[in-house]
Amino acid sequence: MATGKQAHLESVRDIKSKFLAVLEGMDYCMDWKEDPAEWSARELVYHVLETPLGGVHTLVEGILSGEIKEYEIWSGLTNITPERTEYDIAQINADIELFFQSLDESLSGMSDEDLETKKVMMHQRTREVDEERTLNAIFERTLDGHIRDHLAQLQALRDALAI
């Protein structure tokens, strides 16, 4: 079983594949909601790609370069812009590809040591939590928690539509 950087790289590649697969055939219903209080597939996609603001791939690059020492997370943001409401599935998939490519490249360029030694302060504003996080913790919470949880929501949408 892979550990450290290699495990995260495998996770990024696996999630990317599942993310694209779950959206296959959903191009006509990216804005459908089973319930008005729930999020659409489009909202889920851009929530994942842009949380934290700018995306986790941008956060990682900033941490590695030393430019980012702390960051904020606001829960519950769809990150939908007027432009994104008009995107077709090809553009959405291109955004997903770019996100995961950037994350893969950032991971590929770091060492296992970076995962534990590069740390930043995270401010979860919605829940009023402040804590120091290593890159490893960021990847674990993002890949194995946040993104996989939203993949399950996307699968539930897909199932509700009987796709």
Summary, kept brief:
The protein is mainly α. The chain has one domain: Four Helix Bundle (Hemerythrin (Met), subunit A), CATH 1.20.120.450.
Structural topology:
Layout: H1 4-23, H2 41-49, H3 56-65, E1 70-73, H4 89-108, H5 112-117, E2 119-124, E3 129-134, H6 135-160
Helix pairs in contact: 1-4, 1-6, 2-6, 3-4
Q: Quote the beta fraction.
A: 5-15%
CATH class designation: Mainly Alpha
Low-confidence spans: none
Report the mean per-residue pLDDT as an integer. Answer: 95
What would you say this structure looks like, in words?
The N and C termini lie far apart (34 Å). The protein has a 3-stranded mixed β-sheet. It is built from 6 helices and 3 strands. The model has no long low-confidence stretch (mean pLDDT 95). The protein has a single domain (4-160), classed as Four Helix Bundle (Hemerythrin (Met), subunit A), CATH 1.20.120. The longest helix has 26 residues, at 135-160. With 163 residues, the protein is mostly helical. The radius of gyration is 16 Å and the shape is globular. It is 56% helix and 10% strand.
